[in-house]
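Notebook entry, structure prediction.
Reason for the run: the old model in the group folder had no record of what sequence produced it. Starting over properly, with the input documented here first.
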Amino acid sequence: MPHQEQVIAHGNLCAPGPPNNAGYNSNPGPVIIQTESRDKWSKKMDFLLSVIGFAVDLGNVWRFPYICYQNGGGAFLIPYVLMAVFGGVPLFYMELALGQFHRTGAISIWKHICPIFKGIGFAICIIALYVSFYYNTIIAWALFYFYSSFSSTLPWTSCDNEWNTENCTNYFGKDNVTWTNYSRSPAEEFYTRNVLAVHESSGLGNVGYIRWQLMLCLFLIFTIVYFSLWKGVKTSGKVVWVTATLPYVVLLILMIRGATLPGAWKGVVFYLNPKWEKLQETSVWVDAAAQIFFSLGPGFGVLLALSSYNPFNNNCYRDAIVTSLVNCLTSFVSGFVIFTVLGYMAEQRNVNVEDVAKDKGPSLLFITYPEAIANMVGSTFFAIIFFVMMITLGLDSTFGGLEAIITAVMDEYPDVLSHRRELFVLALVVVCFLGSLSTLTKGGAYVVKLLEEFGVGSSIIAVVFLEATAVSWFYGINRFSNDIKSMLGYTPGLFWKVCWVAISPAFLAYIIISSLLNPQPLTLFDYKFPDWSITVGFVIGASSFIWIPIYMVYKLVWTPGSLKQRLAVCLRPERTLPDIHADSMGLSPVP
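New structure, fully documented this time:
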C-alpha cells in the first residue's frame, strides 16, 4: 500500500497536532489523505505548455479576428481587455489554485469545497463529452484537408472537379470575372460538397449515411489522442512540446507570408480600424465577455485537472498571468494572419474587405484561408503547414478536455480505476468515437453546429457561475485566500478577492442573461434549424446542468439528521492534509 504523501515541501505532516484555531467545526469530518501514486509533471514547462495548448485552440485563430472586426475593430480591444482583467483571468487563476491545493479532479474536489455542489463535477464531465463528440470531427476535417494538400495542384484551386457545379467561379488570375450572389468559389464547393457533402442532406431530419473518409480521419485522430493520454501526464506532457509550440512557428511563417501579399494592408486596416460608436452597443460587451471566457476555458475541468499534478508550492499565480497573456496575444496576432490574407483576396476580387470577410466560424478556416493559399506561390507547402497547425491546435484542446474527464473519474473511483488507467482511457476514447459518428454523416455539419451551440453554450457558463459562487460564498473567500497563502506564502490582494466575490460572478451572470434575452436564430449554409431541433438542443443543454440539482436533492435526502443538520453536513467541506497544515500555521479562516 502506498505510504502517506508529504504534501507540504517544507514540513512533515505525519503526526499533526490538533488544530488550535476555532475556524473549523469541532467535528470537522474525515481527513482526506492523498497518496504518492498520483502522477506529477516531469517539468514545469510540461504543465505550462499543456495549459497554453488547451487555452489556445482553433477559436483563437478564427473567432477572435471575426468578432474583433465585427465589433469595432481596434475599439473592441477595450472591452476585451476589461473583461479579461476583471472576469476571465480571475476565474482562470481561481481554477489553477483550486486544483493545485486540493490535488484532485472536478468531481471529488467538491467534498473539500462544498459537498452539496458535487453535481457540478458531473455536469462538467458530461459537457466535456459533448465537446469531444463534435470538436474532434473538426480536427478530422483538417486532417482530410491535410491529406488532400499533398498534390502539385490543390484540389480546391479549379472548377474542373467532379463535385463542382455550374455556379463555381474561379476569379484568381483572370480578368473580367463577374462575381454574383450565386457564385461559389472552388474552395467553398470543395468544403461543402466534397468534404462534408451537405448537399446530399436535407437537414437534421435526414443526415444521410456516414462518410467513411471522415470516419477514417477521426479514427486516426483518436488513435493519436489515446497514445498521448494513456500513461498520464508523463506522456501527454512530452507530446505538447510539439503540439503546443508548432502552431506558433506556423503562425509566424504565415504572418510573414501574408504581410508580403498585395493588398495585405487593406486587411490590417479593416481589422484594427477603430469604430468607437460600437462601444455603446451592449452586444459588443457581451461578445467580449463570451470570447475571453471561452478562450481561457475556465469551467471545463481542465485547469483543475492539469494543476492537480503540480507541486504544492508551485507559483500558480504567475502561471495564470503568463498563460493568460500568451492566450490573449495569440488571438491578437492571429488576426494579422487572417486579415492580411483577406486583404489579398479583396484585392484579387476587386471588392471591399468586408465583402470577403463575411465568412465566420470554421468556414473562415476551411473556405476563406485555403482559397487564398491555393493562389499563392508555394501553395502546397503553405496548405500543408496551415492544416498541420490546425490539427495540433485542436489536439492540444482535446488532450485537455479528455484529461479533465479522466482525472475527475479516476479520482472519484480510485479503488476501481487507479491501476487501470490504460483500459479506462481506451473505453473513454471508444465512447467519444461512437458519440461522434453522427457528426460524420452527410448532415454531420448540422449536428456539429447543434452540439456546439447547446452542448456547451450557456450550460458551461451557468456551471462556472455556480462554481465561482460556491467557492467565494460557501467555501469562503477568506478560507480560499488562506489556501493560496499556504501554497505561495502570501495572500491574494484585494483586487482578486473583489473579483472572485462579486465581479467575476457578475461577469458570468451578464453573459447568461444577455444570451437568454437575445437568442440568435440558428443557421448554417442557408439552412435554418427547425423548431424541433432547437427543443432537442435545449434537452442536450439541460442533460448536463440537471445533475447539479439532482445531486443536491440526493445529498440532502440520504444525509441523516434534521434538515438543519443535513444542511450543515452538506455545506461543510471535508478536511485535507493541506487544511491541517494551514491549521498548524494559524491560517484557517473563521467561516
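Summary: The chain has 24 helices and four strands.
The old model has been moved to the deprecated folder.
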